[in-house]
Amino acid sequence: MTGRRFHRGLGLLVFLSVCFTMSLAQPVKVTPAQQRICDRHNESLMCEQLLREFQSTRELLGGTPSSRVDNPFNFTETFVNKAAGKALLRQIESEFAAQAKEAAQTALQTISTSAANNQNGGAPSASGSTNLVSKPTTTDFISMAAESGAFTDTINGTTMTIQANALGLTKYFANRPVFERWKSTAADAIQPLSFTVTLNLAQTGSTTATTAGSANAVTPPSIASVLLPTNNASFSSFAANYVIYRPYNPQEKSFLDSWRKALATSKDALAVAAKPIASLINKLQSGEGIEALQIKVQTSLDEWHKSGADAEAAARAHGGDTDSFFEQFVSAYSKYEDAYTDALLSLPNAPKQVLDLNNAVAAFKDAVYTVLDKARGTPLATLSYLYSAPEGKPATHNITAVASYLFKGDNPQKRTPLTGAQLTANFTTSIYATVPAGAAYGRLRDFQLSGEFDKPFGGTPAEPRGTLSLAGYGQYQYDPTVLNITAGNLVPGTNIALPGDAQVLLGTAGWLGVAQGKIVINLKQGLNIPIAVKWSNKTDLLKGSDVRGQVGLSYDLSALSKLISPSKN
Amino acid sequence: MTLQLGSLFNSDATGSQETITLEPSDPKTTTQATFGPVFYGTDSQGSPQQIPTNDTSLTITVLKGINPLAITLVSPEKEDETVLLKQGNTLLLDPTIRNHSTVCTIVIKGT
Q1: Does A26 sit within 8 Å of B26, measured CB to CB?
Q2: Which of B39, B76, B92 comes nearest A375 by C-beta?
Q3: Interface test mutation site (partner A, options B77, B94, B98, max chain A beta carbons within 10 A)
């Protein structure tokens, strides 16, 4: 008898275990009809959870009715997103939200400006540029650089380069946080677009001025006009760059490795962004607050348990199409959730805290999205159009393709010889904007090939103290260099009348090669000092090798996150 | 001792060590989702206390009183993904990760 009882008991246990396992193992797949039911009851984002509960035999139908959906706050993101509307009616202003957003902005700015290999200075063709090779990434907002030197030009130049990201500027003018993700197809489309304007500084020239007569007796009265030296800033070039990002596959091992490394290197920034969330959750769900909440919602909770259990039981008894019972179930939960939300928002300070939490969750999600972008690695390629109008030379249109590869190393915490190193290659073709009638040169000016290896050093892999670069550049020029000439170019005493578009050919056609060594010192918060030395086998106007130095100063305004935060109304 | 499921909060003996795991939900058998920063309790200054996690599990020591376990989850998946937070075979929460991350809470009363 005892043995039979034991076997019966064992059989029941096995049966219950199988039922239990089945109820857990059953895949939950929301049908379109069930999703429409959830949508009707404002439970769109909880549909899968409610269906899992509806299909479970353990919770509302169990001995002690309770469900993991009983505390809607547990699904914090979904809950605060939904409750924010009600909370907003009770509390408009939120000082803590500003603090949470500011903390996240700081984290995002750190991620943004810690990239070692952004290009802040001018393109290689700009006189004064310290960049022999164009990089695929630029600023997220605005950067400025002042540089002095020259690569292929005979004459040294001093330039000011201003770069701006199209989305960063748009966000700024729209009074939106510059580093927060703007969820819009248009925003995604313009994010890879940036513009660059380079100005020639310390540009020497002359202006003819009519005299008002001799100032003393020894000056010949025949001097009616003189040349005045000028020193102006003038337009050098304009460029538009569009970055083509590498498509990513979340199943690909190399991408997953990058994702894990990006998470590890951004660990501290994510913790900074998540801390305000935890702080607000502590305020909303701790100690006396939640006990007071339970008292307020107990009646609604009991009603939901009863109605929910009835709907579940009826569905099991009925079998077949159970959508009508699922609708009763969702409706009962929706009523309870409304009561819960009202009760929570009636607690002291809760509306403000819910709004703040909603903002903090959004800021955290933006931080994670930035990490994802980081994991996608350097862009596959950048296409760049440059209109260049160098002083004394015909204007050109230039099209450049930039490709790069970033060496990441295996362990983000441990530096290897190649950690953070970047290899970049450029191909550029340049054509003259206009070719005058009877020109002794063709429209195609040259093509250029160049490559650069950058190796960050010092500091941490995420924030190196500097970058050492070695670069090579080759330019094949189809004709000698064209130089626009004016009376100022003529040897003094030459008495030749020049037409407005007079040009001469100087230098030689063929290959021009440049090698460059550069060190960029990274000061804190987006400030860089590039110092370079270059050797070339000739320059554009003169034969013979040339050795020269270049210096610069660049600043990425993205670092000024507080200045570019949206203004408060 | 394990977490005893309740409506607005779960209960457990103060000082118990409890491990919560992150698992894929059926029909998936693997997940790329991992824990992001997780906080439980406060430090001496009253700031949230971050607790160590590995990719798919975390262990807490239950504190006295009612304290929320604030959990962030991150995933590189392009599609929304529901994951299961479990203690042993017990399902504690089934949050959905949307747009690469989510935030969820498990409230625990230490008795």
Answers
A1: yes
A2: B76
A3: B94
Q: Which residue has the higher pLDDT, A498 or B65?
A: B65
How close does chain B come to A445, measured CA to CA in Å? 45
Digit-coded pLDDT (tens) for A184-223: 778 878 878 888 888 877 656 666 777 787 788 787 777 7
Token pair recorded at residue A167: 């989305």
| Strand ranges, E, within A407-465 | 422-432, 444-457
Check if the interface score ipTM surpasses 0.90.
yes
Q: Return the H-helix or E-strand segment holding A371.
A: helix A350-375
- Spell A36-52 as b/e; 16+ CB within 10 A means b: ebbeebebebbbbbbbb
What is the DSSP code string of A296-344?
HHHHHHHHHHHHHHHHHHHHHHH-S--HHHHHHHHHHHHHHHHHHHHHH
Residue of B nearest to A49 (CA): B94
Backbone angles phi, psi at A309, to 5 degrees: -65, -40
B93 contact residues in A (CB cutoff 8 A): 68, 74-75
Task: Give the pLDDT of residue A9.
Answer: 53
**Of A49, A66, A267, which is closest to B7 when you measure between CB atoms?**
A66
**Smallest Cα–Cα separation from A47: which of B69, B37, B13, B80?**
B80
Q: If you measure CA to CA, which chain B residue comes closest to A270?
A: B37
User: Shortest CA distance to A423 belongs to which of A402, A450, A448, A404?
Assistant: A404
- A358 CB neighbours in chain B (<8 A) are none
Dist CA A35 CA A32 (whole Å): 5
Using the Cβ of B78 and the Cβ atoms of chain A, whether some distance falls under 8 Å is answered with: yes
Helix (H) or strand (E) holding A515: strand A510-522
Residues A171, A177: contact at Cβ < 8 Å? yes
Q: Which pLDDT does position B80 carry in this prediction?
A: 86
The pLDDT score that the predictor gives to residue A114 is 46
Q: What is the pLDDT of residue A48?
A: 92
Q: Supply angle C-alpha A365, A371, A377, rounded to 5.
A: 145
Q: Which residues of chain A have a CB within 8 Å of the CB of B99?
A: 365, 369
Q: Is A290 exposed, middle or buried (0-12, 13-18, 19+ CB in 10 A)?
A: buried
* Chain A touched by B29 (CB under 8 Å): no
Lateral strand order in the sheet of B101-110: B10-12, B101-110, B65-74, B34-42, B48-51
Report angle CA A97, A73, A86 to the nearest 5 degrees: 60
Q: Do A75 and B93 touch (CB under 8 A)?
A: yes
Question: H helices within A56-94, ranges in order?
Answer: 76-90
Give the integer Cα–Cα distance in Å for A127 and A539: 12
Alpha-carbon gap: B14 to the closest alpha carbon of chain A (Å): 14
Ranges under pLDDT 70 in chain A = 1-26, 57-59, 62-64, 91-142, 146-157, 177-183, 202-207, 227-233, 245-247, 377-380, 408-416, 460-463, 487-500, 524-526, 557-569
List alpha helices for chain B, DSSP H.
none
pLDDT of A18: 40
Nearest CA in chain B to A373: B76
A369:B67 CB<8 A: no
Contact A285 B34 (CB under 8 A): no
> Which is more confidently placed, B64 or A255?
B64
Which residues contact residue A333 at a Cβ distance below 8 angstroms, ignoring those fewer than 6 apart? A41, A43, A46, A50, A69, A304, A308
Chain A residues in contact with B96 (beta carbon < 8 A): 45, 48-49, 75, 78
A246 to chain B, closest Cα gap in Å: 15
Question: Are B32 and A259 within 8 A, CB to CB?
Answer: yes
